[in-house]
């Protein structure tokens, strides 16, 4: 039995209805009005939390009193159970009253009479009521068939009458929920995703749905449901010390805002309208609408992160059945020093010591961003509790790991979000607090300032091959708006902060100056190009003077302007703006001096002496960083030596961070700065032995590298990159000599593959300078192409080079009209 009860066909007269109100719910209505009309000396205004508590007490008092009057008492076979807001003790001013009248072996006529006398006073008092009348078996059957009903009954709470009858329902629903969660989990997740798609993200909506939006109150109820199923903690992964105070504080903030929204609207409302925001912010003593938006963003993102953790934890904890119970436990795949993959998450290795390894935070997050695997909440908590602060200036290893993280494409967004929600990002970058959840003042911006910065980083990663210094591009993208949220021009303030941060990161003084200039002038090109006459020589000279004639800085600002625009919102970057900035940059280049040609590094005298002695020498010594080493290979110069040496290093999981390749007489002198992926480097004697075997053709390096690449990725390695590789040619110092500069994304054994490509093309590598910055490489090769040098030969070599470097995936037909995709490609 369920729905509104009507006894017979007679309609109540107006006097009968008024009598029921006066005899039934008049006191309830009057008391509620007094609570909502606070402000008088004898009736002070209650804050949001106190108002919810008072409403819960008020409704419970009326229901228990009315229940006693109707005979809904202990051992009566009748009970009143609350679900929804009253069941959760979260009664909002105009929320529906959700009640279930339970009965057991009671005469139907008696049940109908009780229901009639319980529901009608509430209806006639204009209190919104969702009601049902059921036996316990009927209620359990509904919960088993209807997921929404089941989620509601999980919040059931006894109010009046036979408590044992209520407990039968409450215990039965929870027991069946736990035993049946495996078959209902997929539907639960699908329902949540549908809701998110329909209602959007609270953190990034101008008028968010506080109840149904992603990061809202429904998501907290979802976490509670998973907790009741014993699949996850109700507050996974976040404690009270994280930014925003953790999930409990976020929950209360969302409830407070929704409570005041009801008071302002005078009715039930879930969507926060812009015109109500100032009044609600003032009532909660938060501030204006911008302050309220910032508070909501922080709370919603905290809830969203907790839901992500909760769903992953729940999925891994689902009970196995049948053959799945016999499946082996997931293996631990090494990702980096102290970092492994386990069960689809990035976790710490068993021998990791976070207390002694401050750079572990960056290696964990970089591995997460590169693989797309989430970081385990337990791992993040452990790092938060145990990892010490990085010393200043940062070690080079830590800076390189930060660059790997920033250069990981869109994977960086989720990785930094997880770090930020758990307090770790603010530890690495204390200046972030001023922009965290900061709402934009301009409606053209889609994101909060901190999210905009990460979106810019992701777009910049896809444009990184346009510049010779992708590391400075990524850092500039990260910091270009860091001055917002403070007093003064954000470009000027940000430049000062960038200087401070650059020194902390351990950048060279010249790079610190460039980074500061990027932040200071990140709006110079778009503002000048769109507001001034480009044909006026003074316009061009203004830009040239501001940048001190530095072509590299101009190149960085040009690329950052595009990434910044793409990250701002739809339609901000287009052909008009692109052409104007491009023309300004072209005119500035004509005035500025060109960049000098790349040149080889000089060879140290002690290496020249060792080369003169002849033979094959492989030396290994500690580098400047904790995890870096220097490998020097001296051997008789021969075709394929560089490819073999680089291939042997790659086979032993030694990543080449930089290299200098040269020759003296008949000897090749190659110096590599390497970093082991994990563990200690191999003995130099072993490297020498394998280099000799490779030179003799006893090692199939291409096949071995392909196998190692598959093992490192756990699956077939993806051939796709974020940015298009770029090859730039310069003429050398003599006939048949050329310089090739490659800008691309790194991959296992890339230097070996490139060297083999040059050998196959009969292009002799006279010297090389190799530099890895995060996940990007800028490699320069001095080539001797011989008398056959010409456009056709260079084009063939370039094509062969591009075959071995990662490239972006081909655009799908549906992406053809995407502005962002078109601009990036």
Written overview of the protein:
- It is a single chain.
- Helices cover 51% and strands 13% of the residues.
- By secondary structure, it is of the alpha+beta class.
- The protein folds into 5 domains: 14-181, Beta Polymerase, domain 2, CATH 3.30.460.10; 204-211 and 235-322, no CATH class; 330-428, no CATH class; 435-594, Hypothetical protein af1432; 618-804, no CATH class.
- The strands form 3 sheets. An 8-stranded antiparallel beta sheet has the order 8-9-11-10-14-15-13-12, sandwiched between helices. The chain has a 4-stranded mixed beta sheet with strand order 3-2-1-4, with helices on both faces. Strands 5-6-7 form a 3-stranded antiparallel beta sheet, with helices on one face.
- Helix 16 packs antiparallel against helix 18 and helix 20 (490-505) runs antiparallel to helix 21 (509-520).
């Amino acid at each position: 039995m369920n729905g509104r009860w009507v006894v017979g066909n007679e309609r109540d007269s107006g006097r009968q209805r008024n009598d029921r109100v006066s005899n039934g719910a008049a006191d309830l209505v009057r008391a509620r009005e007094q609570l909502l009309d606070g402000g008088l000396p004898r009736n002070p205004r209650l804050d949001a939390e106190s108002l919810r508590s008072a409403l819960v007490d008020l409704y419970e008092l009326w229901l228990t009193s009315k229940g006693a009057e109707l005979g809904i008492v202990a051992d009566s076979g009748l009970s009143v159970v609350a679900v929804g807001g009253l069941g959760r003790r979260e009664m909002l001013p105009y929320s529906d009253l959700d009640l279930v009248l339970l009965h057991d072996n009671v005469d139907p006529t008696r049940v109908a009479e009780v229901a009639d006398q319980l529901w009608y006073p509430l209806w006639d008092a204009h209190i919104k009521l969702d009601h049902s009348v059921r036996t316990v078996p009927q209620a359990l059957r509904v919960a088993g068939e209807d997921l929404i009903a089941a989620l509601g009954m999980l919040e059931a709470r006894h109010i009046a009458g036979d408590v044992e009858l209520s407990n039968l329902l409450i215990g039965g629903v929870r027991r069946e929920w736990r035993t049946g969660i495996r078959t209902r989990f997929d539907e639960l997740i699908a329902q949540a995703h549908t809701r998110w798609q329909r209602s959007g993200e609270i953190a990034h909506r101008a008028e968010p749905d506080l109840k149904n939006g992603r990061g809202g109150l429904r998501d907290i109820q979802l976490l509670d449901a998973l907790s009741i199923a014993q699949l996850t903690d109700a507050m996974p992964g976040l404690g009270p010390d994280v930014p925003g105070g953790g999930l409990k504080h976020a929950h209360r903030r969302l409830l407070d805002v929704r409570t005041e929204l009801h008071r302002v609207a005078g009715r039930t409302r879930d969507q926060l309208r812009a015109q109500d925001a100032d009044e609600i912010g003032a009532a909660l003593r938060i501030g204006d609408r911008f302050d309220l938006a910032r508070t909501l963003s922080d709370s919603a993102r905290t809830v969203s992160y907790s839901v992500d953790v909760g769903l992953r934890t729940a999925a891994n904890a689902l009970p196995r059945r049948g053959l799945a119970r016999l499946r082996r436990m997931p293996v631990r795949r090494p990702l980096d020093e102290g970092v492994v993959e386990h069960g689809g998450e990035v976790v710490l290795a068993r021998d990791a010591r976070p207390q002694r390894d401050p750079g572990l935070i960056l290696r964990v997050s970089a591995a997460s961003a590169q693989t797309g695997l989430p970081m385990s909440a337990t791992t993040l908590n452990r790092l938060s509790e145990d990892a010490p602060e990085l010393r200043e200036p940062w070690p080079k290893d830590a800076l390189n790991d930060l660059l790997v993280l920033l250069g990981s494409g869109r994977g960086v967004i989720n990785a930094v979000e997880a770090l930020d929600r758990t307090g770790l990002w603010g530890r690495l970058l204390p200046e972030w607090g001023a922009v965290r959840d900061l709402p934009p003042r301009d409606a053209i911006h889609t994101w909060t300032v901190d999210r905009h910065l990460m979106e810019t980083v992701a777009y910049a990663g896809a444009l990184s091959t346009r510049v010779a210094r992708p590391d400075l591009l990524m850092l500039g993208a990260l910091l270009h708006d860091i001055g917002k949220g403070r007093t003064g021009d954000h470009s000027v303030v940000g430049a000062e902060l960038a200087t401070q941060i650059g020194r902390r990161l351990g950048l060279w003084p010249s790079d610190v100056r460039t980074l500061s200039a990027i932040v200071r002038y990140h709006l110079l090109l778009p503002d000048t190009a769109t507001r001034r006459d480009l044909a006026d020589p003074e316009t061009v000279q203004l830009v040239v003077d501001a940048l001190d004639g530095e072509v590299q800085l101009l190149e960085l600002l040009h690329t950052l302007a595009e990434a910044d625009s793409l990250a701002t919102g739809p339609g901000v970057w287009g052909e008009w703006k692109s052409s104007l900035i491009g023309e300004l940059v072209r005119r500035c280049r004509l005035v500025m001096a060109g960049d000098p040609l790349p040149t080889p590094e000089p060879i140290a005298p002690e290496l020249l002496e060792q080369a003169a002695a002849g033979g094959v020498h492989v030396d290994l010594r500690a580098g400047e960083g904790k995890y870096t080493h220097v490998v020097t290979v001296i051997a008789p110069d021969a075709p394929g030596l560089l490819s073999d040496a680089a291939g042997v290093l790659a086979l032993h999981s030694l990543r080449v961070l930089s290299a200098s390749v040269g020759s003296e007489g008949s000897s090749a002198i190659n110096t590599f700065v390497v970093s082991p992926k994990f563990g200690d480097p191999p003995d130099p004697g072993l490297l020498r032995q394998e280099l000799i075997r490779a030179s003799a053709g006893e090692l199939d390096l291409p096949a071995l590298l392909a196998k190692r690449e598959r093992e490192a990725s756990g699956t077939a390695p993806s051939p796709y990159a974020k940015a298009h590789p770029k090859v730039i040619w310069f003429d050398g110092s003599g006939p048949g000599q050329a310089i090739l500069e490659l800008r691309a994304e790194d991959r296992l054994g890339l230097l070996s593959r490139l060297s083999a490509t040059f050998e196959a093309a009969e292009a002799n590598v006279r010297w090389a300078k190799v530099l890895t910055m995060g996940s990007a490489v800028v490699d320069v090769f001095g080539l001797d192409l011989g008398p056959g040098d010409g456009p056709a030969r260079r084009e063939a070599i370039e094509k062969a080079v591009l075959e071995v470097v990662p490239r972006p995936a081909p655009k799908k037909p549906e992406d053809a009209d995407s502005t962002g995709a078109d601009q990036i490609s």
